[in-house]
Amino acid sequence: GAVVSQHPSWVICKSGTSVKIECRSLDFQATTMFWYRQFPKQSLMLMATSNEGSKATYEQGVEKDKFLINHASLTLSTLTVTSAHPEDSSFYICSARVPGQGPNTEAFFGQGTRLTVV
Amino acid sequence: AQTVTQSQPEMSVQEAETVTLSCTYDTSESDYYLFWYKQPPSRQMILVIRQEAYKQQNATENRFSVNFQKAAKSFSLKISDSQLGDAAMYFCAYRSAMDDMRFGAGTRLTVKP
Predict the structure, then answer these.
(1) CA distance A37 to A89
(2) Is any Cβ of chain B less than 8 angstroms from the Cβ of A109?
(3) CA distance B13 to B95
(4) Which chain A residues in 83-102 lie under 8 Å from chain B, judged by CB atoms?
(5) Contacts with B18 (C-beta within 8 Å, 6 or more apart), sequence order
(6) Residues B79, B86: contact at Cβ < 8 Å?
(7) Per-window interface: A 18-57 vs B, CB < 8 A
(8) Angle (nearest 5°) at CA A7 between A4 and A13
């Protein structure tokens, strides 16, 4: 299957700093990528849809100025957590679908990034 | 908005036995797709099985099968001949034609040797 690579796998940052998470589609071009947040022992909550060459679409309640998404190329989307605070500590996962194969095809997920803000 | 409900936070099954995980969803759309994903301790999401809403036949993938009841908006996963490696979190997911995927709260499956 297609491969989605996420980097870093884990990161620890100080409160008030910003941290960038990268999501790459390694063997296909992804016009759309999705960013999820997962709290411990909870489900994946869709944060935003990242669209190549245009602005991301954020879910209700997600602060777009807090979670900056850039999808500058067909193989890379980045999520930047700005002015991070301890409550932003979570597991962040990206996903993408191989375009042109219909919505019944599976979404491929990155390995996830565990963010800890201290 | 679509919602996905998994009413079983935890389930347990004896190795080699069969277990069924429940999932219901709410939607007003007629065209949609349903998935079961597995998340082992590594937290990598792995597709288990998928079902198109327009297909009446239940999907099957080796030991995994679904019972799709469209009128009841139910999409349960049956795991036969359970193996130790099946232990994981299982998430039911709904995707609309608009392409975003929504997940249920998950069911933690324990397999007892």
Answers:
(1) 10
(2) yes
(3) 29
(4) 91, 93, 95, 97
(5) B78, B79, B80, B81, B82
(6) yes
(7) 32, 34, 38, 41-46, 49
(8) 150
Outline where DSSP puts E strands in chain A. Answer: 4-7, 10-13, 19-25, 32-38, 44-51, 57-58, 67-73, 76-81, 90-96, 108-109, 113-117
Q: Find the CB nearest B91 among A43, A49, A97.
A: A43
| Nearest chain A CA: its distance from B77 CA (Å) | 17
* Burial class for B34, CB neighbours closer than 10 Å (0-12, 13-18, 19+): buried
Contact flag B47-A46 (C-beta cutoff 8 Å): no
* Residue A75, token pair as written in the block: 């193989």
Tens digits of pLDDT across chain A (118 residues): 678 999 999 999 999 999 999 999 998 888 889 999 998 888 999 999 998 888 999 999 999 999 999 998 999 999 999 999 999 999 999 999 877 766 667 789 999 999 999 9
Contact A106, B101 (CB under 8 A): no
Subunit contact A32:B50, Cβ cutoff 8 A: no
